[in-house]
Design brief:
single chain; 3 domains; about 425 residues; Citrate Synthase, domain 1; two-stranded antiparallel sheet; binds acetyl coenzyme *A; mainly alpha; about 50% helix; 3-stranded antiparallel sheet; about 5% strand
Length: about 425
């Protein structure tokens, strides 16, 4: 019997089954041979919320949640944040290796020259209501790019795929900035090809009447680092949405819109917006103990705390704390930082949080930095979506190139009626309380 195997005894039949173990996993399809009769469907695994199911093989992002480790293509996140630019990291995620000098120059040049939006896309954005949420505008406009680039549907041509990847990475900041300016009623600013990726984004956000926008280098670098930290995070809710929707072979604009929609929820990328709301609600450092008590009594969650994978300090939160100091050196200290630090201090000493291994996640400090930089909370998840688009596209390409992948299609356990006898409308009894 192979050593790397597991033997299961079916107590219904006393039959033994030996299943191979590969990379610490058994294949769910191997369970199907476990049957009580030839007509039996066979055993399935039941895993709501994918708590213990690997859905793919991947070489993009490695996380060891117990030890607080995050690596992109083998490089620790802290090292990349210290030494690289965001576009360098984007290249690494998309093309497996860090670029050489000339490769980086060409890549930056290509992304810079794809930042413009078609004028019809600009008009499309102008149609949104004056108070539309920037994230809803972004999701819809990313999807609308499918109408501008219909050739994107040919996802089987690698060169065509790469062109759409470049367009998406380049145009996300332009769309994000337009969504922001729209919500303020400001005229849109066109991209400036003299500027770096992040400087140009800041230019499209903040430029008013000055002839040339000059970004503060400390703020630009801090945002670049935040983009690096947010670029990918293996099989999270939005990456899973990208892979699942992309597995139907839809074009990358529609798949990216689906992933961005998944990111928008308050349990995922929307949490940074919720953290700032929570800190506003707490109001002052003195109210922190009462707030923590309320959470422990089961009233809501401490936003920006907890993670499905990290059961240790999120390594991104450490770098973000450092970036926050740099930003506050320029903008002045965000008074919410004191409330956040006190929350973290008390929570990390409290049994409730220790027992459940709840630590600050990436969203705990990012919102405070964004707010100090001048962003409204509605923009925070949009700022997350820009770099994460790179991760989604890397996951999408990996899924398409994986010969084991097919259209994603989970199974279910049927808990509904057996076949029912149809009752004509005239003979149906109304419920006592109408639905
Ligand atoms: N505050 C208080 N209690 C919490 C928190 C929190 N933030 N997070 C989890 N818990 C508790 C749960 O109530 C549960 O307690 P119980 O065992 O007594 O029932 C226990 O800790 C385990 O939590 P689960 O909900 O089972 O953990 P899960 O892995 O499903 O959820 C999640 C992870 C969604 C991130 C959760 O921790 C949460 O809602 N956090 C707040 C929202 C947030 O910050 N999201 C951002 C995540 S990072 C990202 O997506 C970019």
């Amino acid at each position: 019997m192979a050593q790397n195997s597991i033997t299961i005894t079916d107590n219904r039949t006393q039959q033994n089954y030996t299943l191979p173990i590969e990379d610490g996993t058994i294949r769910a399809m191997d369970l199907r041979q476990i049957k009580t009769s030839p007509e039996d469907f066979g055993i399935m695994s039941y895993d709501p919320a994918f708590m213990n199911t690997a859905s793919c093989r991947s070489t993009i992002t490695f996380i060891d949640g117990d030890r607080g480790i995050l690596r992109y293509r083998g490089y620790p996140i802290e090292v990349l944040a210290e030494h690289c630019s965001f576009l360098e990291v984007a290249y690494l995620l998309l093309f497996h290796d860090l670029p050489a000098k000339l490769e980086l120059k060409l890549w930056v040049d290509q992304i810079t020259h794809h930042t413009m939006l078609h004028e019809t896309t600009k008009k499309f954005m102008e149609g949104f209501r004056y108070n539309a949420h920037p994230m809803a505008m972004l999701v819809s406009t990313v999807a609308a790019l499918a109408t501008v680039y219909p050739e994107a549907r040919d996802i089987h041509d690698p060169a065509n795929r790469l062109l759409q990847v470049k367009r998406l990475v380049a145009k996300l900041p332009t769309m994000a900035a337009m969504a922001y300016r729209h919500s303020l009623g400001f005229p849109y600013v066109y991209p400036d090809n003299d500027l770096s990726y992040v400087e140009n984004f800041l230019n499209m956000l903040w430029k008013m009447v000055e002839p040339k926008y000059v970004a503060n280098p400390i703020l630009a670098r801090a945002l670049d680092i935040l983009f690096i930290l947010h670029a990918d995070h293996e099989q999270n809710c939005s990456a899973n949405a990208m892979r699942c929707v992309g597995s139907s072979h839809v074009d990358p604009y529609l798949a990216t819109a689906a992933a961005a929609a998944a990111l928008a929820g308050p349990l995922h990328g929307g949490a940074n917006e919720e953290v700032v709301k929570m800190l506003d609600e707490i109001g002052s450092k003195n109210n922190v103990p009462a707030y923590i008590k309320q959470i422990k009594d089961g009233h809501g969650k401490l936003m920006g705390f907890g993670h499905r994978i990290y059961k240790n300090y999120d390594p991104r939160a450490k770098v973000i704390k450092w970036a926050a100091e740099q930003v506050f050196g320029v903008t002045g200290r965000n008074p919410k930082l004191d409330i956040a630090l006190e929350l973290e201090r008390i929570a990390l000493e409290d049994d409730y949080f220790i027992k459940r291994k709840l630590y600050p996640n990436v969203d705990f400090y990012s919102g405070i930095i964004y707010q100090a930089m001048g962003f409204k909370p509605e923009m925070f998840t949009v700022l997350f979506a820009i770099p994460r688009t790179v991760g989604w596209l890397a996951q999408w390409q990996e899924m398409l190139n994986d010969p084991e992948q097919k259209i994603a299609r989970p199974r279910q356990i049927w808990t509904g009626h057996e076949v029912r006898e149809f009752v004509p409308l005239a003979k149906r009894n109304a419920l006592a309380v109408p639905r």
